[in-house]
Design brief:
It is a single chain. This protein is of the alpha+beta class. Helix content is about 40%, strand content about 15%. The chain has 2 domains: about 80 residues, Winged helix-like DNA-binding domain superfamily/Winged helix DNA-binding domain (Arc Repressor Mutant, subunit A, Orthogonal Bundle), CATH 1.10.10.10; about 190 residues, 2-Layer Sandwich (Beta-Lactamase). The strands form 2 sheets. It has a 6-stranded antiparallel beta sheet, sandwiched between helices. Strands 1-2 form a two-stranded antiparallel ribbon. β1 and β2 form a beta hairpin. α1 crosses α3 and α5 runs antiparallel to α9. The chain is globular and about 55 Å long. GO terms for molecular function: DNA binding; DNA-binding transcription factor activity.
């Protein structure tokens, strides 16, 4: 999630290190890294900006951009001296969206939730320890939370991520914590495993997750998971708004509303909301 005051600013990509796995191809890794950088800027980026953000040399970036321009994955705007995402990249993204047709099925529910609460509604999936925003229905309020599809946030710091993680098997939660850590994005971020497991326990009991300025100062979110036919998390939906507009009482009231909508989406997709089984000593997963 992002602060209402402006777009999310990210540090240079941690993927700037060369690929570690034996099967990784350096040129492909670099090209994808550049695409990710350009995708973050709606207005496009200059060569120097892409070079700085990607951690690659200017000559390498220019060579890769030229190749991707020939394949229409990027395009160069001469008037603005900026590189932008090309139509072939959009075509690939559209193919992903078609395969994940639950987005279309969820849209009427998301729009209705936005209209009922007047706040921004998001839908995201889990990927490699992060939540990826696939769709957003913006609030019509002047001051509102905004994030672009494709935006990412650590699972452990977001309502969407915690709503999904709460329904993972204990070893899988432990694996995420061990692999990706518990990053402190704000003074309120969860940085201790015991606190994370306690939060996930509450989410299983309540049916919704809270993000109380854990990802961005001044932003509160409530989220709930959507399940597939096997009772496993398929995605999650969330409501986000400036903290000044969400009192403690409204925070939990919105949580119940979001949870009800998540159940409705689950049912519309033929999914099953699982029964919750409390787990003792979840944190032991980190010491095993």
């Amino acid at each position: 999630m992002k602060k209402a005051s402006g777009p999310l600013r990210r540090k240079p990509l941690r993927e700037a290190r060369e690929p570690q796995s034996k099967g990784a191809v350096q040129a492909v890794d670099r090209a994808l890294r550049i695409l990710e950088v350009i995708a973050e800027a709606e207005a496009g980026m200059s060569l120097s900006e892409i070079t700085e953000r990607s951690g690659l040399s200017a000559s390498t970036v220019h060579r890769i951009l030229t190749t991707m321009e020939e394949r229409r994955f990027v395009m160069f705007d001469a008037a603005e001296s900026a590189w932008r995402i090309g139509r072939q990249a959009h075509s690939v993204g559209a193919s992903f969206a078609r395969r994940n047709n639950f987005i279309g099925a969820a849209l009427p529910f998301l729009r209705a939730l936005r209209d009922k609460t007047r706040e921004t509604i998001n839908l995201g999936i889990a990927e490699a320890g992060e939540v990826v925003i696939l769709h957003q229905v913006e609030s019509r309020e002047i001051v509102r939370a905004i994030t672009r599809p494709g935006g990412r946030i650590p699972m452990t710091s977001s309502g969407l991520g915690k709503a999904i993680m709460a329904h993972y098997a204990t070893p899988d939660i432990g694996h995420i914590v061990k692999t990706f850590g518990l990053r402190r994005l704000t003074p309120k971020s969860i940085v201790r495993a015991d606190d994370l497991f306690a939060a996930l326990h509450r989410i299983r009991q309540d049916g919704y997750a809270l993000d109380d300025e854990e990802a961005n100062p001044g932003l509160r979110c409530v989220a709930s998971a959507v399940f597939n036919s096997d009772g496993e998390p398929l995605c999650a939906i969330s409501l986000s708004a400036p903290a000044a507009r969400i009192s403690d009482e409204r925070f939990h009231r919105l949580g119940h509303i979001v949870a009800q909508v998540a159940v409705a989406i689950t049912q519309s997709l033929g999914g099953i909301v699982p029964e919750h089984k409390d787990r003792e000593s979840d944190a032991a997963a980190l010491s095993g």
